[in-house]
Every structure is written in C-alpha cells, then in structure tokens.
Amino acid sequence: MQSAVLNEADLDLVAALQVAPRASVAVLADALGMSSSTVGRRLARLEEQRILRVIGQVEWAARAEGNPRHVWVTTQPGSVGEVAHALAQLPEAQLVAETSGRSDVYLAVHDTDRARARELLTERIPSVPGVAGTHSELVLRALTRADSWRLHRLDDAQVATLSQAEDAVTPSDSPGGSKVGEDERRVIALLQQDGRITAAEAGRVLGLSQSTTYRLIQSILRRGLVRPRVEVEPALLGYGLEVIIALTISPGAIQAVAEELARHPSARYVSIVAGTTSVIHQGVFRNEDEMADFLTRDLAPLPGISALQVSVVLRMLRRYWIHREDGRFA
C-alpha cells in the first residue's frame, strides 16, 4: 500500500471528525487548539490527496428492501486479481477485498430489491470468469458499524466540545423506516456523497430554499436515515491488519458474544448472520501481535464459541461503494 504521511495533528483531526463529522471548521479548531485556517488547510490537503472524505452512511431501510449479505468467493488459480476487479464493478457491491484464509475474495453486497438479490448471488457473481465457488450469509442485525469506530486520541473536554457542536445531531435509537419522500431521497443522495454538505449548498443543487433544505437535513440526521462518518483507510491510521472473522456460536450465546465484540476497540462492523456461522466480526489491528492478543485473550473466554474462520484483507478495492487504489480514493 502506498504510504501517506499523517502526522499527529492529522490524526487528531480525524479523531475529531469521527466524533462530529459535520462540525464547522471553527468548532474543530476550538476543540483541537488550532487556528481555523490551520484546520481548514489540513482538511483540504487530506481531501485533495484522496486520503479523507466525510460521507453519509445510509440506513439500510432508506436505500433497500432487505439487508446486506456477506459473500466469500474462491477463485481459480491465478485469477484473484481479475475476479476481485470484476466484482468491484458490481453496483450492488458495497465492499470488495482480496483476502487470504477462508476465501480469495470477500465482498459485502446490498441489492435494493429482494428479488434481484437471488439473481446476484446465484447467477451473476458465480458467472464472473475465474470464480470457482461462492458462499453467502444474510445479515440479520448489525451491532456496530464503521461510523462508531474511533481513534482514541481526544480527552473528555475535547469530546464534549465537539459533541455540543450546533450541527452535531444525535440520531434517534429507532431509524425512520422506509417512509422517505422524494425530496428526502434527493438530500440523502447528496449526504451520502458529502456528509458535510451545508443546507445552502444542498439547496442550490436541488433547487430548494435553504430553510427547507436545512429542515430536511436535520430530520434525516435525527431519524438516523443518514449517519455522517469519516472515510479513511485504517492502514493510513496505523492499523495495518484488517480481518473478517466468522464465528460459530451456540444459539443462547449469540447475542451476548456479538454485543461484547461490538464493544471491542477493533470492531468496525459486527453483525449477527444467518448461515453456517453466527456472527461476523470485521476488525482492524495495528499488527499481528495485537490480533493474537484479541484471539487468545479477548475472544477465547467468550462463551459458546465452537469455531472461527479468519479472512485477512490483502488489498481493499472498494469500501462503502467507493473505489480504492493503494489506500486512497480512486
């Protein structure tokens, strides 16, 4: 992976944006003890270098009928790169990575139509040249997602300053379901691409008044239909090892284990699934020793775990529908 120079101040800025992705430059500067001009320049540089973007994580019910699926793909010898590239072109592919371990390629897919999901899983993915076999599992419930993962660099006072930011809207615990109007869908599409877009900017694009657009944005955020989040490849933040761990767990322990894993500092995405396994833990670690500690010290004592399979990410091609190239946005 191509290296990127992220100094301590850059990492602090990423940590601040994780707490308040839509906070103004002035609020970010106040929390970090920097000038607004310095924060603005740093943010612009990271965006121009294709290292950082603030996007909108759209609630599943607001974009599709069903839930996503995890898919593991085995390939014919020598065809991993070609298969991964082809799968990354699928519009339904949220995440695509070359992996070692359980499979050669791992992807997360989310079709907007339940009926088309069958075709995707049974015909389109298996028919990609070089695919030797596939295995998929349906996500039933997500315990944590990438918008909750944090760099723990800020003190309590800094977090409080950011949390009190005027535009830091706390989503409700019950997302607003599938009742989304046409104007809301248009705003959601803009927020997905730019989680920091202002009401004035969105209003100009959509031909709506600033006040109307502001109300729509606030409603969407409060209902949890969109959760702004920072997109930076974990490797550029010092987490060079990313894994997908599939765990087989006795039914009575599934919820408890999933909740415990969701609280672990490594957890970027933990889901309960229907398939041959019970829980999928997508985690990031600084190195192999840190992962070994997770497996032997943190995971081993949890009840009901009978088996696990690990896929280690070798190359990330697409994450949250955004293509990646050597750790940067393509």
Q: Which features does this protein show?
A:
36% helix, eight-stranded antiparallel β-barrel, single chain, alpha+beta, 12 helices, 330 residues
Question: Would you write up a description of this structure?
Answer:
This protein has 330 residues and is α+β, with helices and mostly antiparallel strands. The protein is 36% helix and 28% strand. It contains twelve helices and twelve strands. The chain has an eight-stranded antiparallel β-barrel with strand order 2-4-3-10-7-9-8-5. Strands 1-6 form a two-stranded antiparallel sheet. Strand 8 and strand 9 form a beta hairpin.
Helices, strands, pairings?
Elements: H1 8-19, H2 25-32, H3 36-48, E1 53-58, H4 60-63, E2 69-75, H5 80-88, E3 93-101, E4 105-109, H6 114-124, E5 131-144, H7 156-163, H8 182-193, H9 199-206, H10 210-222, E6 226-231, E7 241-249, H11 254-262, E8 267-274, E9 279-285, H12 288-299, E10 305-319, E11 322-325, E12 328-329
Antiparallel strand pairs: 1-6, 2-4, 2-5, 3-4, 3-10, 5-8, 7-9, 7-10, 8-9, 10-11, 11-12
Helix pairs in contact: 2-3, 2-7, 8-10, 9-10
